[in-house]
Structure formats: structure tokens, C-alpha cells
Amino acid sequence: MVDLVVLCMVVLPFLAVTGSASVLEDLDTVSSEVVDLNSNFAKHGKVAAAWWAGWHPDLLPLDKVSWKKYTHMTYAFAETTPSVDELSISGGEELLAKFVSAAKKHKVKALISIGGWTGSRFFSTAVGSAANRTAFVKTITNLVKKHKLDGIDFDWEYPNHPGIGCNTISKQDTPNFLSFLRELRAHHIGRRLILTAAAPITPWPDPNDEPSDISPFAKLLDYIAIMNYDLWGSWSPAVGPNAPLNDTCAPPQYQQGSAVSAVQAWTSAGLPRNQFVLGVGAYGHSFLVANSVALTDQGTITAYPQFEPKQPRGDSSDSGSGVDVCGAAGGWGGIGWGGTFNFWGLVEGKFLDEKGQPLQGIHYRYDECSQTPYVYNHTSQVMVSFDDAKSFKAKGEFIKNYGLRGYAMWEAASDHNDILIDSIRKGGGY
């Protein structure tokens, strides 16, 4: 999550959901089925995935990837273009070829993600007519054949929504997407592919802006990675958790969604839990918060403090100001700095030590409701909501205890010495 111009995810205004009092109580209502953790699926079918960003390969060179800790690795991104016959590959096709070769050498499934935050602008057009769907299938299968890819990930941000602000859009986006997937699956190449999707915490909307029936998608996709991150940021009314595991225990005005509510929403819409992959973020968002607001009299970090309109810079990879692909000012909504701290960036920025623990003089708070941490530097007045080893372990346990398929991390280069990936694997029983 280093380049915000090509940022993969952002919160949607229609994603707020509510729930009951606790993780256990809430998820007991999702399904009455018994999850057999001794099943073949639980032993051998888990997904341990991440996205690898083609636009900054030097942050995590392919020979430095901890391949043995992954089952799937997804190249980001192949962006849609005005022509349904063309995809724009971040980093170029030569780099993609090296990525596929490295993944296969280590017996990891090699996928490419189509779309992304800046790359979803023409998705609606590409699936919007029968002729375009057929052409888009050809474009994708040609790419698969050329690079010997194992699968395709669809990261459409978002059907029936303008996304970055200049996406083509149609009320028929979701049913058109379904028709496209059916045609792709019917193709002799598409029939054998791993097909996945990255999706928001609520199901794709139907033409009436209601949650779609997801069961037909579940028959076509191997799994759906629910992007449970970027739920709070500079667009929010206060500092909140970037990637809450739960928020049903939070005051109603602070319930923006969480992994718990996402499981409820998607399984209720027809996605089996063993096709639900939890998207996890190895980064956090920064906020400028005055000492008088950030800290209690006892010196602890307050919950949901108000922040200043000025966006502080994130880590050294923060892309800063500029003009995005829609012609708008850079940053989140045209606010200058992106404010993203990768997990390694929190070490670089002297919030955390080499073991991922808060340094002396840095205030730390772990919110037991959202199961996420916060750090605060009272000198710079910068607060960051993020995920650490403790919160990643909790997410791994959540995946294991509720029979989810696994996790997908944004992104592989954001971790530091595998602290996060080791923790979620431990929690998930990998």
C-alpha cells in the first residue's frame, strides 16, 4: 500500500453495517452449521495469499519473498483501459514474466489482479455488452496463455459505484459481471483457472442498490477476498480502526463495518464460509491529533479522537501531492499527503522497534473491541491506527475458528521481517 495513486482500496459511503454485542454472539447467528476443523479443507485447503505490487518491485525483490509461507501470490495490477482488447500491466510484461517464473519455481500459484483503485475505470464498459464480454474474455485468456498464469483475481473497485471518481458505471454492473464470469468459465482456458475476486465488506449491489444474491458467483469463483481495511481514514469523522476485526461492541456512531459484519453480510447473501478469504492490511493511516485531544489525563490514547484537517505525511514511500488519473489533486480526496504507514514504515518512523513493539516514549493503545492497535508520538502529534502482530494473530484465530478459507494480505512488501505474516499463520494454524 505504498503508492496511493494506485491504491487498491477505499471505504465506500454505503458500507456502514450494524450488529450485536460480541464476536461470538454475532457469528453464531451467521450460520448454524458446524465447522469441521478436522476436514480435508481445514488441513489442506487454506489460502495464504498476498498481492505483490508491480510498480515498486525494489521494495520486495522477488528473490526476497518468503515464498514458502504463501499458497497464492497475486501480481498487482493489470489495469483496464479504454480498449477492451488491452490491459495495462504495472511494471510491464517482462516483470510479470519474472513474477510468474519465481512463483512457479516455489510451487506457489501465480495470479494477476485486474483492476485496482486506479485500474477499474473501464470495468463497467468491458463487461457492459455481450460483444465486449466476449472480447474481454479473449483479452484475459490471451494474457493467461502468454504468461502461463494459474489464475485471475478481479479487483473491481467497484461495481455500480464511481470508485476513484471517474469510473464508467452502470446499474447493471453486477449482473453483467456475473454474465462475464460465466462466459470466462465456459472458455477452455477459463475452465481450468483459479478465479478470485477482491470485494468490499458488503456484497456487490444489484440494480436496485440492494445486496446481490452471491450464490451464483460462488459457483464460478474459487474464493472472494473481502477487503477488510481502509474502513477509517482521513475521510472519517474521527480516528478509527483501519481494519477492525469487530465493531459491533463500539458505540453505534462508530460502527463502520468489520470482519464480523462482513462475514454476516456475505454469508447471508450466499457466499459459503469456506470461500470467504479475509483481506488483511499490513499498514495503517496517520492523523494529526493535538495532545489535549489525543491523550487522557493518565497519558493513555483516547478512543475515536478528533483530528486536524492537515494530513501528516506517512512513511518514506508516501506518494504525496499530485494529480490522479481522474485529474483530481493527489492524496486521499485531494488532501496532499496520503498518510499511509506500512508496517515497516512504523519501524522506520520510530514508532516501533525492530520486533514490532512500541518504542519508549511512544504511546500505545490496543482496542479490545476492534482488536487493533494505535500509536501516538506526542512530540509530532501524529497518531497511526494500524495492525500489529497481536491483531494479526487475532485475525488468524478468527479465520480458523469460523472456518474461513484463509487470508489475503495487502501487500507482500508492507511487512517487516515477516512479523505480521508469521503471526497470522500462527493464529490461523498454518
Descriptive overview:
The chain has one domain: Glycosidases (TIM Barrel). The protein has 430 residues and is an alpha/beta fold. Helix 5 crosses helix 6. The N terminus is likely disordered. This is Chitinase.
Number of strands: 14
Helicity, in percent? 10-25%
Detail the poorly predicted runs: 1-26, 28-44
Quaternary form: single chain
Q: What spatial order of strands do you see in the largest sheet?
A: 1-2-4-5-6-7-8-14
Q: Looking at the structure, what is the overall shape?
A: globular
Largest sheet: 8 strands, parallel, barrel
Beta-strand portion reads 15-25%
The domain count comes to: 1
What string, H for helix and E for strand, traces the elements in order? HHEEEHEHHEHEHEHEEHEHEEEHEH
User: Looking at CATH, which topology would you report?
Assistant: TIM Barrel
Summed up, the helix count is: 12
Average pLDDT, to the nearest integer?
90
Organism: Thelephora ganbajun
Protein name: Chitinase
Keywords:
430 residues, alpha/beta, TIM Barrel, 8-stranded parallel barrel, 5-stranded antiparallel β-sheet, 14 strands, disordered N terminus
Provide a compact summary of the structure.
The protein is of the alpha/beta class and 430 residues long.
List the helices and strands and how they pair.
Elements: H1 23-28, H2 40-44, E1 47-53, E2 72-80, E3 87-89, H3 93-105, E4 109-115, H4 123-126, H5 130-147, E5 151-155, H6 173-186, E6 194-199, H7 215-218, E7 223-227, H8 259-268, E8 276-281, E9 283-288, H9 291-294, E10 340-342, H10 343-348, E11 363-367, E12 372-377, E13 382-385, H11 389-401, E14 406-410, H12 419-428
Parallel strand pairs: 1-2, 1-14, 2-4, 4-5, 5-6, 6-7, 7-8, 8-14
Antiparallel strand pairs: 2-3, 9-10, 9-13, 11-12, 12-13
